[in-house]
Amino acid sequence: MTGQEHLIHRYLRSSKRFPHVWCPGCGIGILLGALVRAIDGNGYGKDDIVLISGIGCSGRLPVYLDFNTLHTTHGRALTFATGIKLAKPKLKVIAIMGDGDASSIGGNHLIHSARRNIDITAIIINNQIYGMTGGQSSPTTPFGLHTASSPFGHLEHPFDIAKLVEAAGAPFVARSTVYHARILERLIGTAIAKSGFSVIEVMSPCVTHFGKWSGIGSAVQMMQWQKDNTVSIEKARNMTPTELQGKVVTGVLIDAHKPTFHEEHARISREMKD
Amino acid sequence: MTGQEHLIHRYLRSSKRFPHVWCPGCGIGILLGALVRAIDGNGYGKDDIVLISGIGCSGRLPVYLDFNTLHTTHGRALTFATGIKLAKPKLKVIAIMGDGDASSIGGNHLIHSARRNIDITAIIINNQIYGMTGGQSSPTTPFGLHTASSPFGHLEHPFDIAKLVEAAGAPFVARSTVYHARILERLIGTAIAKSGFSVIEVMSPCVTHFGKWSGIGSAVQMMQWQKDNTVSIEKARNMTPTELQGKVVTGVLIDAHKPTFHEEHARISREMKD
Amino acid sequence: MRYELRLAGSGGQGLVLAGIVLAEAALLDGHVVVHSQNYGPEARGGNSVSEVIISGEEIDYPRATGLDMLVALNQRACNDNLPDMKEDGLVIVDSSAVKKVLWGRVLRLPLQRQADHAFKDSRVVNMLALGVLTAFCPLIQAESMGQALTSRMPAGSLDHNLEAFRTGLSMGHDLASRTHFHEVEDATDV
Amino acid sequence: MRYELRLAGSGGQGLVLAGIVLAEAALLDGHVVVHSQNYGPEARGGNSVSEVIISGEEIDYPRATGLDMLVALNQRACNDNLPDMKEDGLVIVDSSAVKKVLWGRVLRLPLQRQADHAFKDSRVVNMLALGVLTAFCPLIQAESMGQALTSRMPAGSLDHNLEAFRTGLSMGHDLASRTHFHEVEDATDV
Amino acid sequence: MKSNRVLLQGSEACVRAAIAAGCRFYAGYPITPATEIMELMSRAMPKAGGVFIQMEDEIASLGAAVGASLGGVKAMTATSGPGFSLMQEHISFAAMAEVPCVIVNVMRGGLSTGLPTRPAQGDVMQARWGAHGDHPILVVAPSSTYEFFDLTVKAFNLAERYRSPVIVLADEVVAHTRESVVLPSAHEVEVEDRVRPSVPPEWYSPYRDPGTGIPPMAAFGEGYRFHVTGLMHDINGYPTERQDETEELMARLFNKISKDFHLLQWYDSYFEEGAEVTVIAYGSVARSALRAVRTAREKGMPVGLLKLKMLWPFMRRTVSQYLQSSRSVIVAEMNMGQLSREVKRVNQGTCPIHTLNRVDGRMITPEQILTAIEEELR
Amino acid sequence: MKSNRVLLQGSEACVRAAIAAGCRFYAGYPITPATEIMELMSRAMPKAGGVFIQMEDEIASLGAAVGASLGGVKAMTATSGPGFSLMQEHISFAAMAEVPCVIVNVMRGGLSTGLPTRPAQGDVMQARWGAHGDHPILVVAPSSTYEFFDLTVKAFNLAERYRSPVIVLADEVVAHTRESVVLPSAHEVEVEDRVRPSVPPEWYSPYRDPGTGIPPMAAFGEGYRFHVTGLMHDINGYPTERQDETEELMARLFNKISKDFHLLQWYDSYFEEGAEVTVIAYGSVARSALRAVRTAREKGMPVGLLKLKMLWPFMRRTVSQYLQSSRSVIVAEMNMGQLSREVKRVNQGTCPIHTLNRVDGRMITPEQILTAIEEELR
Amino acid sequence: MLAYDCVPAALGAIMNSVNVYKGWCKKCGICIAFCPQKVLATGADGFPAPGNLEACTGCRWCELRCPDFAIVVSTEAREEGTDEE
Amino acid sequence: MLAYDCVPAALGAIMNSVNVYKGWCKKCGICIAFCPQKVLATGADGFPAPGNLEACTGCRWCELRCPDFAIVVSTEAREEGTDEE
Ligand SMILES: Cc1ncc(C[n+]2csc(CCOP(=O)(O)OP(=O)(O)O)c2C)c(N)n1
Ligand SMILES: Cc1ncc(C[n+]2csc(CCOP(=O)(O)OP(=O)(O)O)c2C)c(N)n1
Ligand code: SF4
Ligand code: SF4
Ligand code: SF4
Ligand code: SF4
Ligand code: SF4
Ligand code: SF4
Ligand SMILES: [Mg+2]
Ligand SMILES: [Mg+2]
User: Fold this and answer.
1) Which of E92, E116, E345 faces F111 most closely, judged by CB atoms?
2) E315, E312, E320, E274: which is closest to E293 by C-alpha?
3) F224-282 residue pLDDT tens
4) Distance (Å, rounded) from C-alpha F139 to C-alpha F146?
5) N or C end of chain H: which has fewer CB within 10 A?
6) Do the Cβ atoms of B4 and H75 come within 8 Å?
7) Exposed (0-12), middle (13-18) or buried (19+): which is A108, by Cβ within 10 Å?
8) Which CATH architecture has domain B3-273?
């Protein structure tokens, strides 16, 4: 049997009511599948994994999975994750955040986690909008887009989250989309295995709100949009900025080495004992 | 008469007690002089300028100057500055922040102001330490340095603030040192004149704390250190990463154009009226 | 005089908007009105409830105390809301989605089927419901409903919606003219 | 029995450390002790105050209520703290920095000069002061001070500081053997 | 009359009120159930010639609002519990620097993330005591769409009059319920503006008591250059540690409001005559209470209702009167008992006080209150 | 005895206590006058085999501490007013998720930035009510170096026992004063640890009441996989909106502490016998009060002192007794009158209550209190 | 009530079956739109239903992209299709 | 009490004067250390004092780098020195 049926059901919490809470066609469920396959593929035990989220539609992910799961406050998932990682360095700590969660209210914790190089995998579900609260613009909403809070067009410029965390010091940064579910799964697997702060930006359709305001439309159309507007980093390297205009560049964007905070802390603690 | 005597006294608040509060040899006073000359050189009136600070030794700057001055909370200067700028777009709004103020507790406001491109000049007095609270490590403290809060050596990696705000979208980014007081003055003048979010990182010696912990020592030695370890961006472009190791690169690092938030807001307000 | 209506169904059936239109119409007719909606635990999915209270005087308590009318578009909505009915209240249900109604005064109409087939637009079910309801609600003028619809609906889809409303209205009038209620008709219907 | 001392001067003169050493010595001598320091409005610059209360029993109120001894290293420190003296308290001042003292029992010693000239280290003024003070404080043994200094000072500068302390001590003893106080000696000194 | 009646959500009334009161700056961050206010503001502000900005969080939102107010523009923000917690440091700053601003907290269910879509009144004490350090605060609580309008206008007026942050403590029911209301037209709304200095800049001290306790307030950039700080400060706004100056400032901060306590007894009283039992309620619970009291009166029970529209400063005067005239009092709140503690504090043992509390995210019903009344009268 | 006596700052005693109580995680951010605690922790934690981390702000600090506690490690943070305001959202989270943690607030002068280097007691009400939504909280207040040690140990024990955030409300005087003290040795310190589940993982429900009101707490990563959320949740930690589950959770959160009110009356009483006037004080003010009461007794005045060591839950029981036995009561605090409100609340009008307040950043002196006593007895 | 709408592998050549669990399916249409072989179509009840199952290569894209874990491909012999991402 | 320690321009050739206001000077030594012409030296009272004023080019670096606005260069004829930063 190779069906995902068994794999996913090994990890879903049977006590939770399904179908899950997300809208029809929402990308978060696809990411959830990829995450489970990545964890399973890496061979981790369920007790090895801590899944931490902030608040948002994406924040609802951990509750469905049979790991150690923690649903924190809006924007602060990484602060709790930091405490858990340092208290129990053996655990694989994964933080799931929305774009608003991670880069609006939580932007500071994001860049500081990157700087400090805390060994956490940050999965940012970037749907370019606030899903949970009803379609307001987020720090990744494209300039000019009309949203529930930018009725005359968004006046602000979006973050390039990958670039931001790179500048802040993250040693591993990758980006993919839920359309590219297999690649996504592999990137997540690599990121979790990697020691240090790893960030994966996952482009994910918010069908209900981004679909409506952008005019892209249905789930299928939004997935199609992802398919049509994605360029791998390998291809992108040979493209001009003009050609790259409006494209989402995917793949491993940064892969470097840097000692992690808990390794450094363990070092001084060892020195203490000697 | 060309003496600074008259220039500075035109701007100092005579009602404040001098000498000012900063330690002997502290760089903040030198920055204050450069700031005043820059403002004067640009020909602004005193009423045109709002000087806003957070909390820290650097936060004590505005009170000495005869402008509209506001001493806010730790890390939040830019949020107040945003409100003032939008309420009175004609004013030249300058935020003075320490490295901890701007990039630790205030890091999120820094990157969002950059992203949004609010027309504010952010002057970050980077002494690589928390001066006011007594020499704890800050987000710019070098890896390995012993400080009041890293008694066994700092375990964290420093931000490159300029790189961070560039990645966040700031259209103008410059760096200088208080040793280079004249260049500093010109950079500040350019930054204030520039429309959009401009950031100037000013390397400034905290004689009392950084001097002590780094072992560099006295005010003179710290200024000498600045002199010896600074490379202009023009020179740096022709240097290898190894050559640049440990050097502070100064000059205008980024100078781009981007519409500012208040211009955009004014545009939609105009459209509203039509 | 206080008249309470509730529209209950699933999220996405447009019941909140229907409730607002109803409240607006009542306002046009000179009544004092309160509208509220139930936000479920999740912003999306789940059940949706839209409630209107119509009165001749200031409304103190802004929530239903005994429903004069309930429109239920699915079984769970029906079950959940029946306990809030006034003794002589009227229940209108979608006949295909709601099979069992333990209530005396019940009207069953194929609202969803009508929307899907006659209008080829499942979303107009709310308008059909509004139409039927108007036929049975003593306090609302059909004209006011039309006016309220006009002011609250996007111009593009107005005609389409108005048509659905009118269809509902005539379904309602039609039924009204030939309905006799007998007690707990569903008791045997379990 | 409650004995209160205060060391007052400018920030950077090492008075906080001196106070801690004093308190530590008193502890070694078996006393109950409280030390507090005054943090001025600014962490740096400005005046600095270090206060020690020595007692044979539990100390309730941890701040001075009447100083038995004041060491003042500059004029403002002297002026500001005189009001807190006990009637028969002893005031020790640096003779070059404090010109005017409206107090009866005053000792004037060239502490800063001694530090600058004899020790070529202006920073040992606190140790000199400690020495003098020890000579006049009935509750502190010089040996305990030595022990406290040893435990609280960095090893590198210990000898240097101990020497200064001893110099202060003998200055104090010397003076003690020949001092007679007359009331408000400074009254004419304005 | 009919033509003036409109169907409005509480949130819509709040936004209209803000604009009528002169608000021209809104900074906010979305949060259920206060998001509507932000969204409506994003449309309304540019139309009114004001500025709307969505900030990165609630800390930044209040910071920006305070900044705008220092720039001379009336400013507000709106949030709910979690965001309100984040705003506390800046509430303390606004109180210290005496910067007028209005903060709407649409209370939702539970502690922490709680029950985001459900009503509660769990932040009543937080509105008074949430920020560090002693300071006075003004808090109003609407119970209907009309009152949300009325009290928002008044909140702006209070903010301007007292140079103080003012909190509008609404609840989810009040914010989300749509009601038919007649709102006053623009010229009928009474608007107060901060007193601006009349002296020349050279004479101006931004924190000098002009006798009223409330110093005139200049805007930045209009010739009056002055200093504003969250540190303890002297009459010129410069930091001070002096005892006399500190004492004077603290006394003035409290007195500027306490001197007007008698003007700040905002309440409605129903069925006062002969009431042996008084129900005390505020916000949406007052609606349930009114219904319960009506029903009780219809049944001949001697019951009255005291609906509080201003929660802080607590109206000791008014409440004491009712405590004296009533045989017993019932305080009904959607929390574990918050304002009832104040009622008890001012009671001094004379009148039995019964509390009726509910914290499951549901409104207190008229039946619950009626039952409590019946028990009191049994 | 002499050999065990050490000269310690309050902050040092606090840090030693934390380590003795089993704290092995500290996350913090510097702020006067709590910085010493952080700095001492930066040395002490690695030595004790624990972890020290300086976070980017106070929000992150408490977040990290709560995270570490969920990882099974006792954790704390320390701050002062402005930082304490920023921690409120996470205090509410810790209360909801029932995560033990200790928060030290070294109170400093004034609202906002205020008087950073000076003492105050301005955050007493904030410690109880600063966070949104109803929840109980535990707050202790040391008055000396010894008590800072003792109450910090007890704070950890309370946190573990009740699965609750616990606040140690110190003031600048207590934190900075050095005193000769004899501290208990490591084995003399009584340490409580959270109850861990004894059932197999399959049976474990992290929020099921075992009868005591306090569910056993598993650590993450030890075989008990469960869900933790700030939303209203059922016994398994899963979000719920159900009325019965919400009610049950809220009731349990409050009852787990209120059932033990009688165990939480922590105070010291001095000169109780025949006291006609009782001074009530806490923190460093209790030291002034003790001196004043001693002096008064020496002068033959019938005065006693009630020093409160636990501020919240407010010890109604104990205070009521003193209110009944005294002819009048003086509540002395370095604020505008905060705990005195509670004394008034429980008083029910029987005993005149006088308040003695000071907010200029200076300690209340024994003379001030003595004067107040003399006035009472005149 | 709702059950697997299981289309078993055909006899012989075709070894794959594509199962839709209607209880969880939200009819988003993603599986239908992005099946490389156009195996799936919208059924009369609005749920996806395999049309020409013979064409199914067992690539599992339908399954991987279903946001609701409502579709499962069972394949015994064939390899999963290569990425077409 | 403290006054400008004003060293006036010498007659004829030298036009510059370097003034130190002791009331504000904190004796940090920066002006002395970084005067390109080594004009300044530590005086007996610890304050900076112009040594060989003839060498002063009026570049004003001492003034620009004084953190306390305690030093002022007055120059009538000469141009300011070019940056040596
Ligand atoms: C302190 C605080 N502020 C605001 C909110 C309200 N809130 C909940 S989710 C959310 C944003 C969700 O957007 P995003 O993080 O992009 O996640 P998504 O829903 O899009 O997955 C907001 C603002 C909150 N819960 N807490
Ligand atoms: C919310 C809050 N947290 C902490 C502090 C304490 N604090 C004051 S200044 C400061 C850091 C100062 O460092 P930096 O910003 O680098 O400025 P510098 O003093 O070095 O100029 C801190 C932590 C505060 N005032 N408010
Ligand atoms: S609102 Fe958007 S992000 Fe949230 S569940 Fe729906 S589609 Fe997904
Ligand atoms: S502590 Fe450092 S930054 Fe602060 S005034 Fe002194 S030298 Fe300057
Ligand atoms: S397995 Fe591949 S070919 Fe078969 S139905 Fe699914 S997507 Fe189509
Ligand atoms: S992708 Fe999944 S949820 Fe969507 S239609 Fe297919 S089976 Fe149903
Ligand atoms: S002006 Fe130039 S040359 Fe003259 S003293 Fe100053 S630094 Fe030296
Ligand atoms: S640089 Fe200024 S403060 Fe320093 S020694 Fe020279 S004159 Fe004095
Ligand atoms: Mg999002
Ligand atoms: Mg700094």
Assistant:
1) E92
2) E274
3) 999 999 999 999 999 999 999 999 999 999 999 999 999 999 999 999 999 999 999 99
4) 17
5) N
6) no
7) buried
8) 3-Layer(aba) Sandwich (3.40)
- Chain F: nearest CA to A123, how far in angstroms? 18
How many other CB atoms are found less than 10 A from the CB of residue A237? 10
Spacing, Cα B210 to ligand 10 middle (Å): 9
By 3-state DSSP, what share of chain G in percent is helix, strand and coil, each rounded to 5? 15, 20, 60
Instruction: Tell me chain C's radius of gyration from C-alpha atoms.
Output: 15
Calpha distance C165→C3 (Å, rounded): 21
Beta strands in D56-151 (DSSP E): 67-72, 85-94, 106-109
Beta bridge partners of B65: B12
Fold (topology level) of E269-376 = Rossmann fold (3.40.50)
Domain boundaries along the sequence of chain H: 23-77
Is chain F in touch with chain B: ≥3 Cβ pairs within 8 A?
yes
**DSSP collapsed to 3 states, A175-227:** EEECCCHHHHHHHHHHHHHCCCCEEEEEECCCCCCHHHHHCCCCHHHHHHHHH
Which residues, at least 6 apart from B9, have a Cβ–Cβ distance to it below 8 Å? none
**A16 confidence band (pLDDT: 50, 70, 90):** confident
Q: Is H25 in the pocket of ligand 8 (CB under 6 A)?
A: yes
Q: Kindly report whether the peptide bond that precedes residue E313 is cis, defined as omega within 30 degrees of 0.
A: yes
Residues of B in contact with E223 (CB under 8 A): 47
| pLDDT confidence bin for B2, thresholds 50/70/90 | very low
pLDDT of residue A3: 43
Whether the pLDDT of residue G2 is over 70: the answer is: no
Query: pTM score, two decimals?
Result: 0.96
Distance in Å, alpha carbon of G26 to nearest chain A alpha carbon: 5
* Chain D neighbors of B132, CB-CB under 8 A: 43
DSSP, collapsed to helix, strand or coil, labels residue B259 as: coil
Look at D23 and F363 and tell me if their CB atoms are within 8 Å.
no
CA distance B269 to C156: 27
Work out the percent of chain F whose per-residue pLDDT is above 70.
99
**C52 backbone φψ class: left, alpha, beta (φ>0; ψ -120 to 50):** beta
| Cβ–Cβ under 8 Å, residues H30 and H63 | no
D2-186 topology per CATH: Pyruvate-ferredoxin Oxidoreductase; domain 3 (3.40.920)
The class (CATH top level) of E4-188 is: alpha beta
Grouping H, G, I as helix, E, B as strand and the rest as coil, residue C133 is: helix
Average pLDDT over residues H52-76: 93
Q: With cut-offs at 50, 70 and 90, classify the pLDDT of residue C40.
A: low
What are the helix (H) ranges across chain B?
Answer: 4-11, 28-42, 77-87, 99-100, 107-116, 161-168, 181-193, 210-214, 219-228, 233-236, 241-244, 261-273
Closest A-chain CA to G84: A180
**CA–CA distance, A103 with A94 (Å, rounded to integer):** 16
Is E378 a residue whose pLDDT tops 70?
A: yes
Q: Which CATH class is domain G23-77?
A: alpha beta
| Cβ of H49 less than 6 Å from ligand 7 | no
Give the SS3 label for residue C75: helix
Q: Pinpoint the residues of chain F covered by CATH 3.40.50.920.
A: 269-376
Taking CA A189 as the corner, what is the angle to CA A185 and CA A192, rounded to the nearest 5 degrees?
A: 135
CA distance C62 to E143: 10
- Band (H76; pLDDT cuts 50, 70, 90): low
Tell me what pLDDT residue F306 has: 98
Q: In the beta sheet, which residues pair with residue F25?
A: F51, F75
CA–CA distance, A68 with C139 (Å, rounded to integer): 56
Distance from CA of B71 to the nearest CA of D (A): 15
